[in-house]
Amino acid sequence: GINAEYGGRLVHVIHEMNLKLSSVELLICDEADRLFEMGFAEQLKDICSRLPKERQTTLFSATLPKTVVEFARAGLKEPVLVRLDLDSKLNEGLKKTHIKISE
Questions:
Q1: Rounded to 5°, angle at Cα 67 from 65 and 68
Q2: Closest C-alpha to 23, from 57, 54, 59, 44
Q3: Residue 5 neighbours by CB under 8 Å, 6+ apart
Q4: Treating both helix axes as pointing N-terminal to C-terminal, what angle do 41-50 and 66-75 enclose, rounded to 10 degrees?
Q5: I need a labelling partner for 56 at 20 to 30 A (CA). Which of 49, 68, 72, 98 fits?
């Protein structure tokens, strides 16, 4: 698996080390709103263009700015919005799981 803090560093590694991303099955973008605020939209698009078309992409964001919505509409296949608002019910498609691990 690949775990990268921000798109800029990963793009550097992709280019400098000729990193192949053909086996990536899942892309997780946490704090997606911050990635776009910090100017990583082009790097994220570059990364996505190098990934297999058949993959799962998840974007997590505390806010939903226009840039994140536009990216999701343009670059994601069948995007689904799951909202967790204080005054609304959880989405029925969301599965809640709790795992207790003892020492």
A1: 70
A2: 54
A3: none
A4: 20
A5: 98
Alpha helices by DSSP H, listed for 1-103, are 7-16, 32-37, 41-50, 66-75
> Which DSSP category does 22 fall into?
T
Residues 7 and 47 sit within 8 Å (Cβ to Cβ): yes
Place of tokens 């536009």: 70
* The one-letter amino acid at 86: L
Q: Which DSSP state fits 77? A: S
Contact between residue 51 and residue 21 where contact means Cβ atoms under 8 Å apart = yes
The predicted model scores a pTM of 0.68
Per-residue pLDDT 10s for the chain (103 aa) are 555 555 567 788 888 888 888 998 988 888 888 888 888 888 888 888 889 989 988 888 888 888 888 888 887 888 888 777 666 666 677 777 777 777 6
Return the DSSP state at 91: P
Q: Which two tokens stand for residue 17?
A: 């080390």
